[in-house]
Amino acid sequence: MLDVELVTVNTAEGAAYGAALLAATGAGVFPDVESASASAIQVTGCSSPGPATAAYREIYTLYHSLYLALQPTFHAISHAESSEH
Length: 85
Hints:
By secondary structure, this protein is mainly alpha-helical. It contains three helices and two strands. The longest helix is centred in the last third of the chain and has 32 residues, at 53-84.
């Protein structure tokens, strides 16, 4: 669907884990962010785009054109709802 390779890593603590690695780098535990990341993060899985990617791309193109066509309506609804409160 995204037409990109997706990987999973050995941690679910994205922001906090990244902050800890940056702090460790800043404290001199690692010479640079790349070294800190390489020592602590391992790829645990990978998904490549499948054969349905072309169909999703075509449908997304239709969705995007519909969204653009309806954007003024969405904007008007938003203003109408905010003026009611």
